[in-house]
Amino acid sequence: MHKLRTIEMQRLSVDEFHEANKLPLIVVLDDVRSLHNVGSVFRSSDAFRVEAVYLCGITATPPHPEIHKTALGGEDSVAWRYFETATEAVAELQKEGVFVYSIEQVEGSTKLQNLQLDTDRRYAVVFGNEVKGVHQEVVDLADGCLEIPQFGTKHSLNVSVTAGIVIWEVAKQFLERLKL
Fold this sequence. Notes:
Elements: H1 14-19, E1 23-30, H2 35-47, E2 50-56, H3 65-71, H4 74-77, E3 79-83, H5 86-95, E4 99-103, E5 110-111, E6 123-127, H6 136-141, E7 144-147, H7 159-178
Parallel strand pairs: 1-2, 1-6, 2-3, 4-6, 4-7, 5-7
Helix pairs in contact: 2-3, 2-7
Protein backbone atom coordinates (compact mmCIF):
# COMPACT_ATOMS: atom_id res chain seq x y z
CA MET A 1 0.00 0.00 0.00
CA HIS A 2 1.13 3.50 -0.83
CA LYS A 3 0.46 6.21 1.75
CA LEU A 4 -1.13 9.14 -0.10
CA ARG A 5 0.48 12.54 -0.03
CA THR A 6 -1.71 15.59 0.45
CA ILE A 7 -1.43 16.58 -3.21
CA GLU A 8 -2.69 13.12 -4.26
CA MET A 9 -5.88 13.47 -2.17
CA GLN A 10 -7.32 16.25 -4.38
CA ARG A 11 -8.70 18.22 -1.44
CA LEU A 12 -10.85 21.29 -2.01
CA SER A 13 -9.40 24.76 -1.68
CA VAL A 14 -11.12 27.05 0.82
CA ASP A 15 -12.90 28.83 -2.06
CA GLU A 16 -14.02 25.50 -3.54
CA PHE A 17 -15.22 24.42 -0.07
CA HIS A 18 -17.35 27.56 0.21
CA GLU A 19 -19.02 26.77 -3.14
CA ALA A 20 -19.45 23.01 -2.60
CA ASN A 21 -22.59 21.17 -1.46
CA LYS A 22 -22.69 20.97 2.32
CA LEU A 23 -23.97 18.43 4.77
CA PRO A 24 -27.27 19.97 5.94
CA LEU A 25 -26.00 20.05 9.51
CA ILE A 26 -25.21 22.91 11.86
CA VAL A 27 -23.01 22.20 14.85
CA VAL A 28 -23.82 24.28 17.95
CA LEU A 29 -21.27 24.61 20.76
CA ASP A 30 -22.93 25.54 24.07
CA ASP A 31 -20.34 27.11 26.40
CA VAL A 32 -17.42 24.95 25.25
CA ARG A 33 -14.47 26.35 27.18
CA SER A 34 -11.45 24.66 25.56
CA LEU A 35 -10.12 26.40 22.49
CA HIS A 36 -8.53 23.12 21.43
CA ASN A 37 -11.97 21.46 21.50
CA VAL A 38 -13.40 24.33 19.44
CA GLY A 39 -10.60 23.93 16.92
CA SER A 40 -11.09 20.16 16.75
CA VAL A 41 -14.80 20.63 16.08
CA PHE A 42 -13.98 23.02 13.23
CA ARG A 43 -11.57 20.46 11.79
CA SER A 44 -14.16 17.66 11.93
CA SER A 45 -16.78 20.01 10.49
CA ASP A 46 -14.45 20.76 7.59
CA ALA A 47 -13.74 17.06 7.04
CA PHE A 48 -17.44 16.28 6.62
CA ARG A 49 -18.38 19.56 4.91
CA VAL A 50 -20.75 20.74 7.66
CA GLU A 51 -22.91 23.74 6.76
CA ALA A 52 -21.90 25.87 9.77
CA VAL A 53 -20.71 25.98 13.36
CA TYR A 54 -22.56 28.18 15.85
CA LEU A 55 -20.44 29.31 18.81
CA CYS A 56 -22.42 30.23 21.91
CA GLY A 57 -21.78 31.83 25.29
CA ILE A 58 -18.20 31.47 26.55
CA THR A 59 -17.18 29.50 23.45
CA ALA A 60 -14.26 31.33 21.85
CA THR A 61 -14.43 32.55 18.26
CA PRO A 62 -11.85 32.72 15.49
CA PRO A 63 -9.40 34.10 14.77
CA HIS A 64 -7.40 32.71 17.66
CA PRO A 65 -4.04 30.90 17.60
CA GLU A 66 -5.23 28.20 20.04
CA ILE A 67 -8.28 27.43 17.87
CA HIS A 68 -6.08 27.39 14.77
CA LYS A 69 -3.64 24.96 16.43
CA THR A 70 -6.22 22.14 16.22
CA ALA A 71 -8.51 23.47 13.45
CA LEU A 72 -5.60 23.73 11.00
CA GLY A 73 -7.59 26.16 8.84
CA GLY A 74 -11.02 24.58 9.36
CA GLU A 75 -12.07 27.82 11.00
CA ASP A 76 -11.49 29.52 7.63
CA SER A 77 -13.41 27.04 5.50
CA VAL A 78 -16.45 26.35 7.69
CA ALA A 79 -18.98 29.17 8.11
CA TRP A 80 -19.57 30.21 11.70
CA ARG A 81 -21.70 32.57 13.76
CA TYR A 82 -21.64 33.69 17.38
CA PHE A 83 -24.69 33.81 19.71
CA GLU A 84 -24.83 35.10 23.28
CA THR A 85 -26.62 31.89 24.31
CA ALA A 86 -27.32 28.52 22.79
CA THR A 87 -31.04 29.09 23.45
CA GLU A 88 -30.90 32.01 20.99
CA ALA A 89 -29.18 29.84 18.41
CA VAL A 90 -31.69 26.99 18.85
CA ALA A 91 -34.67 29.36 18.63
CA GLU A 92 -33.35 30.81 15.37
CA LEU A 93 -32.64 27.37 13.92
CA GLN A 94 -36.11 26.10 14.76
CA LYS A 95 -37.65 29.24 13.25
CA GLU A 96 -35.84 28.25 10.02
CA GLY A 97 -37.33 24.74 10.22
CA VAL A 98 -34.12 23.04 11.35
CA PHE A 99 -34.62 19.94 13.55
CA VAL A 100 -32.43 20.33 16.64
CA TYR A 101 -30.90 17.51 18.67
CA SER A 102 -29.07 18.05 21.94
CA ILE A 103 -26.28 15.55 22.49
CA GLU A 104 -26.93 14.60 26.08
CA GLN A 105 -27.75 11.68 28.36
CA VAL A 106 -31.42 12.14 29.22
CA GLU A 107 -34.47 10.00 29.81
CA GLY A 108 -35.90 8.98 26.46
CA SER A 109 -32.83 9.89 24.40
CA THR A 110 -32.32 8.24 21.03
CA LYS A 111 -29.26 6.00 20.96
CA LEU A 112 -27.01 7.12 18.12
CA GLN A 113 -27.11 3.71 16.42
CA ASN A 114 -30.93 4.05 16.18
CA LEU A 115 -30.88 7.49 14.55
CA GLN A 116 -32.95 7.65 11.35
CA LEU A 117 -32.73 10.99 9.56
CA ASP A 118 -34.97 12.37 6.85
CA THR A 119 -32.46 13.33 4.15
CA ASP A 120 -34.80 16.08 2.94
CA ARG A 121 -34.41 18.01 6.23
CA ARG A 122 -31.76 20.18 7.82
CA TYR A 123 -30.45 19.31 11.26
CA ALA A 124 -28.52 20.86 14.11
CA VAL A 125 -26.67 19.12 16.92
CA VAL A 126 -25.87 20.89 20.18
CA PHE A 127 -22.75 19.91 22.12
CA GLY A 128 -22.28 21.14 25.67
CA ASN A 129 -19.69 22.34 28.12
CA GLU A 130 -16.91 19.93 29.04
CA VAL A 131 -18.10 19.68 32.66
CA LYS A 132 -21.80 20.55 32.72
CA GLY A 133 -22.89 19.36 29.28
CA VAL A 134 -25.74 21.01 27.36
CA HIS A 135 -27.68 23.53 29.46
CA GLN A 136 -31.03 22.15 30.66
CA GLU A 137 -32.95 24.99 29.00
CA VAL A 138 -31.36 24.03 25.67
CA VAL A 139 -32.25 20.36 26.24
CA ASP A 140 -35.82 21.51 26.96
CA LEU A 141 -35.97 23.48 23.69
CA ALA A 142 -34.47 20.73 21.53
CA ASP A 143 -36.64 18.59 19.29
CA GLY A 144 -34.85 15.49 20.57
CA CYS A 145 -31.75 14.21 22.32
CA LEU A 146 -29.11 11.84 21.03
CA GLU A 147 -26.85 9.71 23.17
CA ILE A 148 -23.74 7.74 22.32
CA PRO A 149 -23.88 4.44 24.20
CA GLN A 150 -20.82 3.85 26.38
CA PHE A 151 -19.73 0.63 28.01
CA GLY A 152 -16.76 1.51 30.21
CA THR A 153 -16.45 3.12 33.62
CA LYS A 154 -16.72 6.72 32.39
CA HIS A 155 -20.05 8.37 31.61
CA SER A 156 -18.84 10.88 29.04
CA LEU A 157 -16.51 11.46 26.11
CA ASN A 158 -14.49 14.55 25.26
CA VAL A 159 -16.75 17.02 23.42
CA SER A 160 -14.59 17.06 20.29
CA VAL A 161 -14.55 13.25 20.17
CA THR A 162 -18.32 13.22 20.61
CA ALA A 163 -18.70 15.77 17.82
CA GLY A 164 -16.61 13.68 15.45
CA ILE A 165 -18.68 10.56 16.14
CA VAL A 166 -22.03 12.33 15.77
CA ILE A 167 -21.05 14.31 12.67
CA TRP A 168 -19.85 11.10 11.01
CA GLU A 169 -23.12 9.31 11.81
CA VAL A 170 -25.11 12.16 10.25
CA ALA A 171 -22.78 12.27 7.25
CA LYS A 172 -23.16 8.51 6.67
CA GLN A 173 -26.91 8.94 6.29
CA PHE A 174 -26.49 11.76 3.74
CA LEU A 175 -23.54 10.44 1.70
CA GLU A 176 -25.60 8.80 -1.02
CA ARG A 177 -27.90 11.77 -1.52
CA LEU A 178 -25.22 14.47 -1.44
CA LYS A 179 -22.61 12.60 -3.48
CA LEU A 180 -19.82 14.15 -1.44
